[in-house]
Amino acid sequence: MKYAVIAPTAAGTTADPAWISAYAKHVEACGFESLVAVEHAVVMSRYASVYPYDGSGRMELADDLDIPDPLDLMAFIAGQTTTLGLATGVLVLPNHHPVVLAKRLATVDALSGGRLRICVGMGWMREEIEACGAPFEARGRRADEQLQVLRKLWSDSAPDGVDHHGEFFDFEGAMSYPKPVQRAGGTAGVPLHIGGHSRAAARRAGRYGDGLQPLGVAGEELAGLVTLMRTEAERVGRDPEALELSLGHLVTRIDQARAERLADQGADRIVLAASSTSDLAEACDELTACAERLGLP
Question: DSSP code of 112?
């Protein structure tokens, strides 16, 4: 089992270089696999969109909270650590142009020595996505094409480059270097996981992804999404057993018994949400206690 820790954005400290650097180093020292960063390119002070993971329909983060760019944060953390994995959870894919994103992801992966993993989502805040220039209603179709563009630009395209003629993106002879260090799914590229709670997310993970991170689902609904992901992968000629499943829990509550129950549901990775304390010593103590409960090295 792999254990990832979500950077405690709600604490308001993830843009504090001294705080987040010390925290990341402790995550690494405790033996956790990776540190995960969230994304909101912009948060509107007034929004009509409904946050799907809280009964209030409002997200738990304050509108004026520091939410650093996750890829820039991962690049910073890469320079502060040596083995710690660097991940997003989730990157709001509609906010990004895939040609630019391919370069940014490959650069972080290359400079970190192949430590990057990306979990992308379609986003729920219409106002944010439209402010970034993407059509909200078409974000699913656009995302499928974005994932294809990323894979193409990460491929060994010399000397002629790659072509793409799609609904949203169009180019010929494109050369994007450096390439990612890693090989995800047998081809060059940063591992791309799909986050979400819908059947569309599960199908997208099967067709284009390297794994699924279901959000806010459990029991039969979770099992159905995992089955759908693997069925879709097999349908398009991909190896369904090569796809990972990442499930969530809490740093303060996870233990070996709970981890075993998640493993029984097929989890390859547990993504742990930390408390929102801004006290660095307290936050590190929580990580230490968690690592001891899980028997991490």
Answer: T
The CA distances from residue 77 to 69, 92, 158, 245, 270, in Å, are 12, 20, 31, 25, 21
CATH architecture, range 2-294? Alpha-Beta Barrel (3.20)
CA angle 276, 104, 154 (to 5 degrees): 125
For residue 75, give both structure tokens.
Answer: 């690049």
Strands 187-188 vs 183-184: parallel, antiparallel or unpaired: antiparallel
> Does 60 score more than 90 pLDDT?
no
Helices (H) and strands (E) in the chain, counts: 9, 13
Rg of the chain taking only CA atoms, in angstroms: 19
What span, in angstroms and rounded, lies between the C-alpha atoms of 249 and 160? 46
Q: What's the pTM?
A: 0.94
Residue 184 confidence class, pLDDT cut points 50, 70, 90: low
For residue 215, the model assigns a pLDDT of: 85
Distance (Å, rounded) from C-alpha 133 to C-alpha 153?
22
Domain ranges of the chain: 2-294
DSSP state of 60: S
Helical segments of 134-267, H only: 139-154, 199-208, 219-235, 256-264
Per DSSP, helices labelled H in the chain are 17-29, 70-80, 98-111, 126-131, 139-154, 199-208, 219-235, 256-264, 280-294
CA atoms within 13 A on the CB side of 136: 10
- 83 DSSP assignment: S
Task: Write down the pLDDT at residue 9.
Answer: 95
DSSP, collapsed to helix, strand or coil, labels residue 272 as strand
Cβ atoms of 212 and 201 closer than 8 Å: yes
Which tokens go with 106?
A: 């490959």
Q: Which residues of 130-162 are buried (b: 16+ CB within 10 A; e: fewer)?
A: eeeebebeebbebbbbbbbbbbbbbeebeeeeb
Write down the residue that tokens 């010390």 correspond to.
22
